[in-house]
Design a protein that fits this description.
Radius of gyration: 35 Å
Number of helices: 29
Structural class: alpha/beta
Number of strands: 10
Strand order of the largest sheet: 3-2-1-4-5-6
Largest sheet: 6 strands, parallel
Shape: elongated
């Protein structure tokens, strides 16, 4: 059976691979590769795609996954912390762009309804491109990232009213107020359903799924939930993408959000490529090259217009100069929802075909410029801020302050920290030690019982598979000083080591393993130190044995170091060495250290000083220390008083110690 779309997938993705491979050589972002692949394979070039509609459906799935991941990473608490920026900042940017575009387009002779509609189109920026690039650069929570996300969220929400308003602009709707009222009621109803799901249903369902320890079931649950909420919002007239965003927000409130992100990312990367390809297929190359000069002028005009509006918006919000420039260099392009909205306008006769092609060309070029401007935004901003400007202006810019610059999402700012992978006995003990030593640390565990145990104790724990790079990136493993891998799975341990080394070469990796045979492979993969349980327990026991024989500490340390440095070879075989014990150098002849309890109120000793009790003169023993309740008295003098229930640490002849023990027992 022939499946046409399968042939299209092979052709366009194969073409994308070739283009992106070439682009990587010259360090051009892969997004442009997908756009170029779409242009080449589109109907206006080589017409390599026979199932255009199916490809557009795949691109829609990519948008769903993209907004789903964005929702997970933002969280409801994060949105609440920037709600004023979303409403006020987004409203200023969208409203300002629509107003200026309408005035300019009307001045150029376009009808008022067409001018307003063009304002709708140019007011929207690309959520897909901007957030993907901000994620890759790790700037989602930076000040310019937060205001950018806030404005993009407002744009994504305002798309729905714009679509409803489009028929009215075209004169094809008689009662828009009734339509908006019905839609508002639906939105409220969906909001109630989503809140109930987030509070009562989703946490319980994921708890049941996680307890099964079935990875496939977890992934299936995440995907079904994403598409289920998207379908719910679509069924009441909202967009699929907005529903996916809501689904992500719901999951963001659960303990399993990071693992959900890690599982969905591969799907997102595959399907989002179809979106950029489908955008490229829409461009009419004949029209483009025939009107290249006008198109480029319009591109410059649109970019400058959007930059001015975004810059004024962030300035009104009283962000600092660097944030203003970084934001306007992020949101200057035309967005994917504009392309969707333009199709609705074309169907309703709001824009003629030639203006539609101008719009497509402007959109694609501005999207293509986005990766470059975002990549170099820091350098350009630095150059602008260092440019010679009047001192009064610079002083005024430097004095701009706003609490929005200090708004933070409730995420841990991990740096120079300890990463503990596995919350078993060893991982738990390491966490306790780190807490007592005031060392910042984070724990990663995928076992639901261990995770819940750590969470109940208030530990900084993340649920996730540490073999997944997304989880490692979330815990900032690239900024960790030490990583301790304390799990019992050798294969997973090796994969974790390899993944960590892709992020950082400086973190010191300590691995706990069961057997000495696993040391060599772990070291080869990048571990700095491997501690096998089967021998470390033996070393610890023998260290305590040597201490009882009063071997000097430095000799014990040298002895244990020699065992470890030889990969425990001393413990793997006896090497034919005869057992001829010679303990004379390990002991002080006829002397020992003993611990005696003062249980009875012996008047010869209790309440007396050490000198008065005759410990040294009469019994020939030395009091080294005294334990009194929970305190240790180590500064012993002849005037130290012995009390009932004390614990005495004595040094002396065994017979003398036995003698005083009998006296204490009377």
């Amino acid at each position: 059976m022939e499946i046409p779309i399968l042939q299209d997938i092979v052709v366009i993705l194969g073409l994308s691979i070739l283009i992106i491979l070439a682009f990587q050589k010259i360090k051009v972002p892969s997004i442009l590769g997908f756009l170029l692949a779409g242009i080449i394979a589109g109907p206006h070039a080589f017409n390599l795609i026979s199932s255009q509609h199916e490809v557009e459906l795949l691109s829609e799935i990519g948008i769903i996954f993209l907004l789903f991941v964005i929702g997970i990473e933002l969280s409801l608490k994060g949105l609440a912390s920037i709600k004023n920026t979303i409403i006020f900042g987004g409203g200023l940017q969208v409203g300002g762009t629509i107003l200026i575009t309408t005035l300019v387009a009307t001045f150029l002779g376009l009808p008022l309804n067409t001018s307003i509609f063009l304002g709708f189109l140019f007011s929207l920026s690309s959520t897909a491109i901007v957030l993907k690039l901000l994620q890759e650069k790790g700037e989602m929570t930076a000040p310019h990232g937060r205001i950018g996300v806030a404005i993009l969220i407002f744009q994504d929400i305002i798309v729905v009213p714009m679509m409803l308003f489009t028929p009215l602009l075209a004169g094809k709707s008689d009662n828009i107020l009734l339509t908006i009222g019905i839609l508002t009621a639906k939105v409220i109803l969906v909001g109630i359903v989503i809140i109930l799901l987030a509070k009562y249903v989703v946490p319980k369902v994921f708890e049941w799924v996680v307890k099964t320890k079935n990875q496939e079931l977890f992934i299936l649950t995440v995907v079904v939930f994403c598409f289920g909420i998207a379908w719910l919002t679509s069924s009441v007239g909202l967009s699929l993408a907005l529903g996916a965003f809501f689904a992500g927000l719901i999951i963001s409130e659960s303990d399993y959000s990071h693992q959900a992100t890690a599982n969905v990312l591969p799907f997102r990367e595959i399907f989002i490529s179809f979106f950029f390809i489908s955008v490229g297929t829409l461009l009419n190359l004949n029209f483009f090259f025939s009107n290249i000069v006008y198109i480029l002028l319009l591109v410059v005009a649109v970019i400058l217009l959007k930059m001015v509006v975004v810059g004024l918006t962030t300035l009104i919000l009283k962000y600092k100069p660097r944030t203003i420039f970084m934001t306007l260099f992020s949101l200057f392009q035309v967005g994917e929802f504009s392309l969707l909205l333009s199709g609705v306008g074309l169907e309703n006769g709001l824009i003629p075909e030639n203006i539609y092609q101008y719009f497509l060309a402007i959109s694609i070029i501005s999207m293509g410029l986005t990766p470059f401007l975002i990549s170099y935004s820091s350098r350009i901003t630095y150059a602008i801020l260092k440019a010679p400007i009047p001192s009064a202006v610079r002083k005024r810019l430097n004095n701009i302050k706003k609490s929005a610059d200090t708004e933070e999402f409730s995420e841990e700012n991990l740096h120079d920290h300890l990463v503990i992978i596995g919350y078993g006995i060893n991982g738990g003990n390491i966490g306790k030690a780190a807490r007592n030593a005031n060392i910042p640390y984070v724990i990663v565990d995928m076992d639901p019982d261990s995770f819940n145990k750590a969470k109940a104790k208030g530990e900084p724990v993340v649920f996730g598979d540490a073999t997944n790079p997304t989880i490692l990136e979330h815990i900032h493993v690239q900024e960790a000083r030490v990583v301790v891998i304390a799990i019992s799975d050798p294969a997973a341990t090796h994969k974790i080591i390899s993944s960590i080394r892709l992020f950082t070469q400086t973190a010191f990796i300590i691995v706990r393993t069961r057997y000495v045979s696993e040391i060599e492979e772990s070291i080869r993969l990048g571990a700095d130190e491997v501690i096998p349980e089967e021998f470390e327990t033996s070393i610890e026991i023998f260290t305590r044995v040597l201490k009882k024989y009063l071997v000097p500490f430095d000799e014990i340390q040298d002895f244990t170091d020699s065992i470890r440095s030889s990969d425990y070879a001393m413990l793997t075989s006896l090497k034919g060495k005869p057992h001829n014990p010679n303990l004379q150098h390990l002991n002080i002849p006829n002397k020992e250290i003993a611990t005696l309890s003062v249980r009875r109120n012996n008047k010869k000793i209790v309440g007396k000083t050490i000198k008065e009790s005759g410990m040294g003169k009469n019994y020939r023993v030395t009091v080294l220390a005294i334990k009194r309740e929970n305190d240790y008295l180590t500064e012993i003098s002849p005037n130290t008083i012995i009390m009932q229930d004390d614990l005495l640490y004595l040094f002396g002849n065994p017979s003398n110690i036995n003698h005083i023990n009998k006296i204490l027992s009377l």
